Each structure stands twice: as structure tokens, then as C-alpha cells.
């Protein structure tokens, strides 16, 4: 099973090579965006994260055959694997991170051995794997693994293969060390376990974790709370409203066993677009990791035209898969004047947008 490269699951930020026999000019290397999609000429935006190589080949071939080719021959391979780290926490001998790449094969048991094995009083029958859910959102799926049963029976068929950015959390036995702690992860000053005190809330938890870093996405924090069934429920927390507006409605209680997670700004960005020329705010605009950003909407809502802008001849420069640059001229003024965004252009990572000035005659 491991020898078959077609069984490897595509991850966000992988770079995948696509060869289309019937359309060589469409062949090239494509980056999987943070929301798990990639943009392919003729086909458009396709969700590929979570699919195996073979499933992606079949999906792309079917979409090409549905509209353009009687038969499409598509080959997919990973050109560059996403890098990341496993975070191994809780009742293990040496909690910490373990750097891996997407082409590495490592299992749950191997990762626990790499940090020295379980600590005393580890709940080794309730090992949690927290994994990003495909789609670029903040939700994580939880897999609970009974490692103790595997060693007792010497049957390791239920061992789990791990992926970059997985979190492995080994709880302590109830009533023992760790039962009165909460875990802080992400962009906090001191990630790790912190003592729980009576009356703990979000403000006290953030202070106990050393505050937040400059890279923190304040409005997208989460509390992951044990649900009693081996999984976690997720509660959204807007730290910006707490610390910026003194909105105490967001200052919810924190309980023993909770996980406070503060993501980085970069983790939620699906790419970047460069705006220049006759605009109010030239520079880089981050694309959302989920949802779709378009040219006219972004110019209207975020960037703005200055008083000399020629809204009817906006230039968009985009890199093709073969490395060549393609230029489009878009009448953004007409789109905005009519309020009809059906002709708007979806933006992609590394697009360059130039708004020229109007030519005045006297």
C-alpha cells in the first residue's frame, strides 16, 4: 500500500505536476491553495486536497471530458511536498515538535517513540490526533487511538499514518498530573501546558500563556473542549474584540483540559495579489484561504481607485503553468456601474493588477 505513490493524499500547499496529453500547453506545476483548491485553465477551480493522486487524476479527466475532450489522459504527481511539523504534547517523556515533509512515512507509534515514549500515568488508550479539516477553515478532525490495545495484542493494524501539522495529544489519567491544566497552542508567548486556576477565563489564559505574538490572527482564536466522547467541540473566540474593544461577551470560561489555539495570519492566507498604479492603497493584498476573492470586489472594497484612475482598462497579469505571463484587460468600471459581478475575474496567488491613469485632453 505504501509503495503505491498514487495512494498518497494531496495536502494544502503541495505543488503538483499535471500532464494532460491532449493539451500539453495546460501541463505544468500547480500550487494547492490553503483552501485545498487549484485553478486549472478550462476546468476552473477544483478541490483536490484530501484526494489521492489517482482520485485527482480521475477527477480532472472527468471534468475535461465533460466539456472539452472526448477522452482526456491526465497524469498527476507531487512535484514538491508541503513541509510542516508534528506537535506531540501531553503525557510523553519529551513533548515537542518533529519536522516532517509530506513524502515521509511516519506513524503515530513511531512519533511517540521519537519523543521517548509515554510518561507515567499516560492515558495511552485515549491518544488524540488533531488534524486540519480539508477546506482551509479552522476546524480540526479528531481521531482517538487506543495505543495500549495495540501493544497488548501486538496487532498494529490500527496504527495511524501522520501528516504535517498534525497534533498528537496524550492526556494524563483523570485525577493525576495534567488533570488541572489547559493547553495553549499557536501564536502565544509560551505554547504548552499551563496550570488551571479557579475562575480561569480567556483573558487569564492568554496572560498565563505569555500573551500573543505579532503574527497572531486575533479574530480567529479557538477553544477546543473535550466533549466526553473522545472528541472536541470548537468554540470561536475573537481576541481582538476582547483586548481591542473590551467586549467581555467573548471572555468565556476556560476549563481543565481545554485547548486554546491562536492561529497565525499566514496560516489563514490563501495567497497574495499585488496592486499598483492609480489606486488608493497600492501594495499586497492577502487572499482568504477559504471563499473566493475577485478583481472588481477587491478593488472596490479594499484597494480603491484614486481620482485619476482609468477604471475601464484595468490590467491583470497572471503567470501560466508554463511560466509565461498572460495579460488581461478588464473593464472594472462597467462591472461596478452595473452592479453585475457575473463578469468579475477570480483572483489567484501572485496575480499583478495595474490600474492606469486616465489620459486627459485639453
CATH architecture label name of the largest domain: Roll
Q: How much is the average pLDDT?
A: 84
Helix content: 10-25%
- Give the number of helices: 7
Distance between the termini: 74 Å
The radius of gyration over CA amounts to: 24 Å
Q: Count structural domains.
A: 4
**Number of β-strand runs:** 20
Strand count, sense and barrel status of the largest sheet are: 5 strands, mixed
Low-pLDDT segments:
none
Which range does the strand content fall in? 25-35%
Q: Could you name the CATH class of the largest domain?
A: Alpha Beta
Plain-language structure description:
With about 350 residues, the protein is α+β, with helices and mostly antiparallel strands. The chain has seven helices and 20 strands. The strands form five sheets. It has a five-stranded mixed β-sheet with strand order 7-6-10-8-9, with helices on one face. A hairpin with a 3-residue loop joins strand 3 and strand 4. The chain is flat.
